[in-house]
Amino acid sequence: MDSMDLEREKGITIQSAATFCRWGPNHINIIDTPGHVDFTIESQTLTVDRQMKRYSVPRIAFINKLDRMGANPRKALNGLRNELKLRAAFVQVPIGLEGEHVGVVDIIKNEAVYFEGEKGTTIVRREVPENLVAQVAETRKELVETLADCDEEIGEMFLNEEEPTADQLMAAIRRQTVARNFVSVFMGSAYKNKGVQLLLDGVNHFLPSPPEVRNVALDLSNDEKEIELKCDPNQPLVALAFKLEESRFGQLTYIRIYQGTMKKGMNVVNVSNGKKSKIPRLVRLHSNEMEDVESASAGDVVATFGIECASMDTFTDGTSNVSMMSMFVPNPVMSLAVRPKDMQQSANFSKAISKFTREDPTLKVSVDGKTSETIMSGMGELHLEIYLERLKREFKVECISGNPSVKYRETISQKSNFNYLHKKQSGGSGQYAKVIGYIEPLDEEKQKRGIDFEFANHVIGTNIPPEFIPSCEKGARGACDKGALAGYPLSGVRVVVTDGQAHSVDSNDMAFQLAMQYGIRQAVKNAKPVVLEPIMKLEVVAPLDFQGTIIGGLNKRGGLIMSSDISEDGSQVTIIADVPLVQMFGYSTDLRSSTQGKGEFTMEYKEHLAVTKDRQEEMVKKYLEKMAGEGSE
């Protein structure tokens, strides 16, 4: 189903693709999710498991590639049990492994199933081979014991030493799969069509159909009260746009219909903005191929063109005012500063960024207000690299990328006085302003409330005319735009003006602004200024085996471990640490390699703290060299 050149080159799925098939009496919708941890809403076994638990999704498992060297289905089953803590059991036994794999034994019906023909599409059922009879009996016993732990009927039969029939086992597996208490494990080789047919049988037999799943929406007319949707084609339409993609026909919107029927040519209402749109075309998708349909009903996944919307928008037929709840989208963990190599490509660059952000809700793009850099943020380095490659291939825009400028700040450590006279005479009216006062660190409580600057007027009388007090404040704020140490913004400062002097002719707005700027810069040098850096609160979740490796890696990055908690079942560890943002570049790749791809992390801004003395000296030195270089040009 991978249709992009990049997907074939890298051997991973980058964009989710949809397809459908009919198997037996049922219509099955299949979505091929990205196959790398960066392209998700985190699509890797451990992280997908967390998502399925978050949304209460029943599951069955398929162990693929039994024809490959080193195939070991038992190892995979142990992984399901030990790593994911799932109650799982085989429902099949392989007939041969690696190059000798020819089929499987259905241990529920106790029959061997062979996949013959050039493409494995000819199914032949025979008796169980003699060399597998004992293994099949042992595996069936294991299946019954596992089900007995969670299913009351099978548990009672097990205690009475009664052998359940095939129908009783099938019914128990379905009950416990729907209740999310059991995972049946199938196996085969999908590429050679071995085992896929029985997997689809398992989907029909064990997984719930749309009417059996409880879906709720929020009633916007009744204070967002939850209401249950009915999977009924005759009810009012409720559908969710869950993925956007730009195609050669325009924006392609993937839609999951939860209630009602959507027809070609009908009008739908986007609940988020109230905009009404007409459905010009309705298609079912198979990767990059399309099949036009006239209508689709509750439970279907289809796509349409020509509707402007955002990912996770809800559509109705206008008779109800309800909204589906958006899925969980993790915050980006990695950022790059990007700009087109050729500025004449800026229009194509903007068009591409707009397309990518509509397609992918985990890709965030912003412009840094201080540095004017375009910051692209995503789920990891590979995630961002792919979009840079797509910019080059699809839009012919080569980009220059690099780490975004870390938002350092400067502040002061103690009170410092200023007494500055600004006097300038150049024929005619000049400039004259004298300001006296002090600067001091701002109260911590105010800083916690997000206040970075405070100006106070303590001038008694009219030594500084009242009309120039705003000029003094404006000059003070201007002085804080650039610190005295390394040129970073000055924050956490309280400026107090106590006295001053004015001239009846030469004093003006600009004179008092400049006097305050120079006076404060002079005072800052005597106030023990320090450089502050952003500190991130980092949370790492990984298997317990990697705890020491993760803590060692964080120590190397200057992190301070705040806590380390082990999950109740002893399989996972959650480590919380405070780490300088500047040390976090490249951490996504390092964590993945050091935990065999099993670790994941989130981080959020916590506070700004002073950098170490040696780092501050280094930063000041670089700033002075930079200023000297600019001065000599």
Question: What this model shows, in words?
Answer:
The chain has 633 residues and is an alpha+beta fold. It is built from 15 helices and 35 strands. An 8-stranded antiparallel sheet has the order 16-15-21-12-13-20-17-18. A hairpin with a 5-residue loop joins strand 15 and strand 16. The longest helix has 20 residues, at 613-632. The chain is elongated, with a radius of gyration of 33 Å.
Keywords:
5-stranded antiparallel β-sheet, 633 residues, 35 strands, 8-stranded antiparallel β-sheet, alpha+beta
Please state the structural category: alpha+beta
Cα Rg: 33 Å
Q: Calculate the mean pLDDT score and round it.
A: 85
Number of strands: 35
Distance between the termini: 57 Å
How many helix segments? 15
Spatial order of strands in the largest sheet = 16-15-21-12-13-20-17-18
Oligomerization category of the chains in this entry: single chain
Would you kindly provide a brief summary of this structure?
With 633 residues, the protein is of the alpha+beta class. It starts with a helix and ends with a helix.
Task: Record the SSE blueprint.
Elements: H1 5-10, E1 17-23, E2 26-32, H2 45-54, E3 61-63, H3 73-82, E4 88-90, E5 92-95, E6 103-106, E7 111-116, E8 122-126, H4 133-148, H5 152-159, H6 166-178, E9 183-187, H7 196-206, E10 215-219, E11 225-229, E12 238-247, E13 250-259, E14 261-263, E15 267-270, E16 276-278, E17 282-286, E18 289-292, E19 295-297, E20 301-305, E21 314-316, E22 322-324, E23 334-340, H8 346-359, E24 364-367, E25 374-378, H9 381-395, E26 399-402, E27 409-411, E28 416-424, E29 431-441, H10 444-448, E30 453-457, H11 469-479, E31 493-501, H12 509-524, E32 530-543, H13 547-556, E33 560-566, E34 572-580, H14 587-594, E35 600-610, H15 613-632
Parallel strand pairs: 3-9, 4-9, 30-31
Antiparallel strand pairs: 1-2, 5-6, 6-7, 7-8, 10-11, 10-22, 12-13, 12-21, 13-20, 14-19, 15-16, 15-21, 17-18, 17-20, 23-25, 23-26, 24-25, 27-32, 28-29, 29-31, 32-34, 32-35, 33-34
